[in-house]
Amino acid sequence: AMKNVLITGCSSGIGLAIAARLAKDDQKRFKVYATMRNLAKQDDLLKAAEEHVGKTLEIKQLDVCSEESIRNCVNSIPDRRVEILVSNAGMGLIGPIECQTIEEMQNVMDTNFFGLVRLLKEILPDMKKKKSGHIVIISSVMGIQGILFNDVYAASKFAVEGFCESLAIQALKFKLHLSLIEPGPVITEFERKVYEDGMKMDLSGADKETAEMFTNVYLKNYKSIFQSLGQTAEDVAEHTMKIILSDNPPFRHQTNTLYTPMTTLKYADPNGDLPIDTFYKMVFQHDKIFNASLNFIKLLRWRSKKSFDLGKNHS
Ligand code: NAD
């Protein structure tokens, strides 16, 4: 029988890619309920998977900021049966906190953190009753480690990770699986929106040094970080599908091996200074070394892509 998968935030990016990938599964193992806040934005998903609509794919409205919309969506699924939940909807926010309003920050927490909480309040009781289910959460490497000028976004993903770490212990008792997918930079609308908002940001609330740091250091390097380290949404979808199909899915999964050395720094130093010093040096002291390491990463990326392609040919 097909497993019902409910995915949030499917009008673009990673959510769209996961919905399309699972709907296209050759073995037809999934019935995908691809949801989005605004159904008027379904064209890109249709472009990617229109031939599957009514078969392995249904498109539904769901706003993670509205309990009513979540309840209506789940009630519209036969027997409310959701075997796999992919909590993906989310938003970014960059810049100095002096230039952000509390309302903007609350909006990020409401979407990224309370969005997940609302979904689980609706779906978890059913899963517990059945003693089966898999909850997959698109978190971020920023759920492990903060980055300059991503203060509130990182806080929202830390909230997600802490919440899931606590819940995972209870879930085990009910034989439920919980998996946090932690991508590094992914080239999606997200990155474009966040960058454009950053460029438009009114920096008059910040002192000159902070404003310059944001424009001349952070925004200046932003594009090159995504270009050298960035993954595609399809790549993240491929990882997510493997986690969903795994008999014994891990609690945490990073999708970007080029990024793992950074997160490893956190685990290497219980005092917590090592990753902070390293980021500081990368950003403020060694602009040249920073560029050199980006070039090195590009080389690694090219090499690993080559061996990945080779591996594919042999299988
Ligand atoms: P995206 O902007 O393309 O996708 C986010 C989706 O969430 C959009 O379709 C948006 O409409 C939707 N959304 C926002 N608020 C919503 C709401 N209230 N209800 C329902 N849907 C809502 O960006 P993406 O990169 O595909 O992001 C997907 C997830 O991946 C997010 O949780 C993000 O934090 C995470 N992530 C992204 C990156 C990256 O670099 N792009 C890296 C790590 C993690």
TrEMBL record:
InterPro entries recorded: 17beta_DH (IPR011348), NAD(P)-bd_dom_sf (IPR036291), Sc_DH/Rdtase_CS (IPR020904), SDR_fam (IPR002347)
Pfam families: adh_short
Gene3D superfamilies: NAD(P)-binding Rossmann-like Domain
SUPFAM superfamilies named in the record: NAD(P)-binding Rossmann-fold domains
Record keywords, A-Z: Lipid metabolism, Oxidoreductase
GO terms of molecular function: estradiol 17-beta-dehydrogenase [NAD(P)+] activity
Binding-site list for NADP(+): 9-37, 63, 157
Organism of this sequence: Pyxicephalus adspersus (African bullfrog)
Lineage: Eukaryota, Metazoa, Chordata, Craniata, Vertebrata
Residues annotated as the enzyme's active site: 153 (proton acceptor)
Protein name, as recorded: NADP-retinol dehydrogenase
Residues at which substrate binds: 140
GO biological process, alphabetically ordered: estrogen biosynthetic process
Family named by the database record: Belongs to the short-chain dehydrogenases/reductases (SDR) family.
GO cellular component annotations of the record: cytosol
Superkingdom of source: Eukaryota
